[in-house]
């Protein structure tokens, strides 16, 4: 399959008078067409910053990409003008956020909002054609076209997220970034939204980056997984490799050990003992060492050894073959 996205050695920081926060520290991954990658990790791992970096929607005054490249079909997004990037958003790349209400306008009908998204990139289509596309988009996400005259508050949480997805898909983006798209939804609706994303991927040949705390979500729809910790990817591989339990990074093992029981009402991961380090004050050596049960002397000073086999990457000194 053709490569859609290549991220190489990406660094992103937040700079204020008080402190410099190193949110993303040299991550690399790539994504083929019609492929889904899951970025997994606890809050503060740099997942959302990575997404905002790709979208170039970092907070204007403080957020800054300080190194690396983001290639979309070979073109470095960091080298193009702000205006070209604005055009890319919504035509080539769309993003859906955790809470559907932050993306919906309560004073407009959902039909108007989908129309607005279509209008931005309208290439001379007539009104009637555009209306037909609105109907199609709603039907695509399983909402009867007649409901385009309704306002967001007339939809349930799951239906609202479907509307948000239809808006994000209005311009048939090549890349869809979904930041915790199902966290605000209950378990049954969550399954429906994931199934929807999976079928849309096939139908529209979209590639997806899904950001999540939840390994259950990853198992459901991801082809590849990148486990993030303190702004780095500590383990990366196919979903098959990660779930088959092949030689894991100690942090990944911790994540698996903390998978909640889905029969109980706990959707989020139970935290691993200890806290994610402050990104303004990262520890030396392996950034996981203060919490790692396997930590050795050199873990405190030396950046972890990167072990790679058949595309499965693990950054940990334990894998160093002497
Ligand atoms: Fe643990 Fe050391 Fe491996 Fe880091 S490098 S995960 S501290 S064993």
Automatic annotation (TrEMBL):
Compartments, record wording: Cell membrane
Pfam families attached to this UniProt entry: ABC_tran, oligo_HPY
Keyword set includes Membrane: yes
Biological process (GO), any one: peptide transport
UniProtKB keywords: ATP-binding, Cell membrane, Membrane, Nucleotide-binding, Transport
Entry membrane topology: Peripheral membrane protein
UniProt GO molecular function: ATP binding; ATP hydrolysis activity
NCBIfam families to which the protein is assigned, alphabetical: oligo_HPY
Family indicated by similarity: Belongs to the ABC transporter superfamily.
Protein name as it appears in the record: Oligopeptide transport ATP-binding protein OppD
Organism this protein belongs to: Sporomusa termitida
